[in-house]
Amino acid sequence: MDTATFASERSFDNEAYERMHLYRKRQAIETLLEDPEVNDLVSSWIGAFEVYEVLTNHLEVISLQGPSSFTVEESGFVYPGEEIPEDAEATFEVTAEDRQTVYGLIDRHTDEIVALEITDPEDITWEKTQDAEEMKHGQMILESDLVQEEFGDLRESTWYPSFKGSGGGFTALGAGDLRHGMGGTAVLNVEDDGERNVISAFFDGSGEEPEMINITLVEDHVEYQPPSLADEVATMDESVLGDVPGVPFEKRPYYTANEGWHRIEPPENSFEQSGWSIDWEEPNYQGITMTGSYNGKPVFESLNTPTTITAYYLPPREGRNTREYYFPDDDTVLNGDLGFWDVHGTGFGGPGLLGKIDFPADNGRPGGFQLKTHYHTGAVGAESVDFHSGFRFGPYNYDIAYDFYEDGVMRPVFRRAGPGFVRQFVNKVQANSESYAENGSYEERVVQHYTSTQAFDITPGTDSGVAVELFDGDEWTEPEEELYVDGEAGMKIRFSNPDGPETVDIPLDEDKEVVVVRRHEDEIGPGDATAERLTDEETPSGFYHPAQYVDGESIQGERLIVWLLMIGATNQVPYSSGTTNFTTTAQIELSGYE
Q1: CA angle, 568 as apex, 564 and 571 as ends, to 5°?
Q2: Does the global pTM surpass 0.85?
């Protein structure tokens, strides 16, 4: 245990790292819940948040945290039947009571707890405010037949809202055939008989007045969360708490290491390591923005992640690329019920860059380091206080990491842990299951599908124009115009210095796509030379997919923006939001940088 460190994804073969996040996370949770002290505590929670990380020495670390109950102090909300003043403002002070965090180190070879620690109870408070426009949405929800039938008048109840409005720069509401920015979502948390219930509503904001187009009571709003699993897991005869050591701070998950809060230890804004020179800036909406060089020669002027495209309740993909799949009409209306062009910032569910993790050379793998960033898009504040207290229906849990190695390899690693709106659409799929076989074949709707975008202002040894080559598995070609390529096994795209030896290769397999376009200040991309999400977008936004920028301009010898699209086909793995992590990776390979 003493020598165990956070493991590098590159340390594992045969996609074992990805498999561990799909399978081992839940197994580690259940192993921790076999301890009777842990089980007794977790089964009393009204919600939970779980985190898993892979360590070396066949260890893994897991943390579980949640509260026993919650209270709400509301003031200023104008209930249905009363007129809302234009300057009205409501405040909901929410307290998650007696939140505790459980840390465990698990030996993944033996499924044994080798270290265990439980923090003291703590009340966690956050505030939600609502203006007059948001209260209109609230009144519509409260006076709906569903809320009246399930809960009645909420004036004397414990509840609080999370209204995101009927329009915004990141919502795709295909259920209403709405353009980007014309729809919105709202979530209501309601206490009833000691249980926390979730109401989910969709709004059309395209007219003068908002219209509620869908409202749902989301049963079991997070799939397989620890309190539910605790009731199903058989416990050991005796707890090991106190018999095994506690979990050292440096081996706890970065998300929760600080008594349930983030461990934030960012490096200097400019540093050199393993042959790489990195400058980075705090995120606004597109994650951290980096400039990178290797052995003193430029690789990219800027790199960040402008959006993660999330789509729910889609038809089968049937071999289409993601532009055709998500947006078959080549516009901003999504081919599914709900979607988001998720942003990655500090004010909307940060915290951004957590730290730099060093990877010493080991077992034939070169040494290097990871810049680990993290976003709870849609949660409250940089510390995501609601999400970290188990109130997490709706927001997301993204781990976007960048691994740099001394042999000139860079690997973006995208991990999604949910829950988002997964359970709402799992319920819908199950409710409509009989209809999927009506045409003689079983064609179930796709609950969820992701695309993580990484955008590079590519500079292979030069800050002038670059040369582009594409390998289709058989031969190299030199494309003359902007391109959008759907990857296949054996494909590769190459960017090189026309006047030097430096090249940057990006292998493209079946879960990758690439968009290569000229750099323009009015098109979204990384860095100061391009437009930025939300900051430069209008409402309704015209942005929907990077491929929309492909319009036939020449690319040879030009400054280019390269969009690497990392596809997350979460519909092909278990949906158990939170208890499984979906992981997808890519690789960037340098040569001629000696």
Answers
A1: 155
A2: yes
